[in-house]
Amino acid sequence: MITLTRLNGNQFVLNAELIRTVEECPDTVITLINGDRVIVKEAMKRVVNLSIEYGRHLRRLIPMDPPPTG
After folding, report:
1. Facing residues of 40 across strands?
2. Secondary structure of residue 1 in the 3-state scheme
3. CA-CA distance, 3 to 70, in Å (whole number)?
4. pLDDT (tens digit per residue) in 25-44
5. What is the set of domains in the chain, with CATH numbers?
6. Long-range contacts of 18-24 (CB under 8 A, 24+ apart)
7. What is the pTM of this model?
8. E-strand spans in 7-52?
9. How confident is residue 57, by pLDDT bands cut at 50, 70 and 90?
């Protein structure tokens, strides 16, 4: 989950796994996989970086399979 800011200044949390596209035109528009759109104050690059960090955080939480024995 990533924390973002709506244009009215209210913060909200978005599941980064639901993001389909992020565009700047000039506001940052996030399109979700269900077609919903969200406009945020953060720059496109910031949204992308937050999403990447979220993915890295998830991968650290997943335990690795033990090596095969025998």
Report:
1. 6, 28
2. coil
3. 46
4. 999 999 999 999 999 999 99
5. 2-61 (2.40.50)
6. 19/47, 19/51, 22/47, 22/48
7. 0.81
8. 11-14, 19-24, 28-32, 37-40
9. confident
